[in-house]
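Pilot study result, target chain (121 residues):
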Amino acid sequence: MVVEGKPELLLLHALPLDGSMWAEQAKLLPEATYAPTLYSLGDCIEAWANEALKLTAGNRIIVVGCSVGGSCALEIATIAPERVAALVLVGTKANHRPDPEFHASALETLRNDGLEPTFSK
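Predicted structure:
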């Protein structure tokens, strides 16, 4: 299968970071790079994948995911394989087991304390 069209880059961050972790990479494809903050896109990886995919318009998406962002990237490849030209996984398990309690705890910490406590430990 050949995926045609102008490439777009979709960068998916690690937990507990946000889309800003990709600030330097955002310059790779100006006006065609998306680095959303996943937490604002829903309450589960499937919702994140669906909403992140909506940010892109083309059918030649290079999806890069780090850690939980990689799990989201795998979900995108599952729901729209015809649009994914390449999939890059960084520190990601090929098969994930969602842990709703950890997810809820991490989001609660981010809401209440922000990113700082994560890096000070």
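One observation from the pilot: The chain has four helices and four strands. A full batch analysis is planned for the follow-on phase.
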